[in-house]
Specification:
Helices cover about 15% and strands about 40% of the residues. By secondary structure, the protein is mainly beta. It has one domain: Immunoglobulin-like. A four-stranded mixed β-sheet has the order 1-3-6-2, with no helix packed on it. Strands 5-4-7-8 form a four-stranded antiparallel β-sheet, with no helix packed on it. The longest helix has 17 residues. It is globular.
């Protein structure tokens, strides 16, 4: 009986840790700079990113390949970060980009953008494979989502 109780506790704690964060959806795609312009910018305001935060590898450049990420967290995650691994068409090795991610304890959408020299392919290029991971401040991977081609299927 104790053995079964221990197994149940282990299963419940593993499930609780897995539920700490999850990716609801990841939409990759090219975005031109114009798609980020808002009416407030025509009246002297800055780029509006309050509703969906926009994180770029080269903040001064808006054109780029973006990952619109929708992530759900059970609690606030101060000090967390996104680790975006991408295999670009011009380079066979994965390149990793990190973005700060102080997430509240709810469902959040944000843009992770590879811009400027970090995405030299322009609108015509797409990554060969990608993986995005949410990493806690202590280095634990809380959740990850990857493209179909990221790894070989298990046999």
């Amino acid at each position: 009986m104790r053995f079964l109780a221990c197994l149940l506790l282990i299963a419940l704690s593993a499930r609780a840790a897995a539920a700490e964060a999850e990716f609801v959806r990841v939409w990759p795609g090219w975005r031109a700079a114009e798609t980020f312009e808002r009416i407030s910018e025509y009246f002297g305001g800055s780029e509006a990113s309050a509703r969906e935060p926009i994180l770029r590898t080269q903040p001064a450049t808006r054109d780029g390949y973006y990952f619109l990420v929708r992530v759900k967290t059970a609690t606030a995650l101060p000090g967390a970060k996104f680790a975006l691994s991408v295999i670009r068409p011009d380079h066979p090795e994965a390149k990793v980009f990190t973005f700060p991610a102080a997430l509240p304890g709810k469902e959040t959408a944000l843009h992770l953008g590879l811009t400027g020299a970090d995405w030299p392919g322009g609108a015509a290029a797409s990554p060969l494979a990608w993986k995005v991971a949410l990493v806690a401040a202590d280095g634990r991977t809380l959740a990850e989502h990857k493209s179909f081609l990221w790894e070989k299927p298990a046999k």
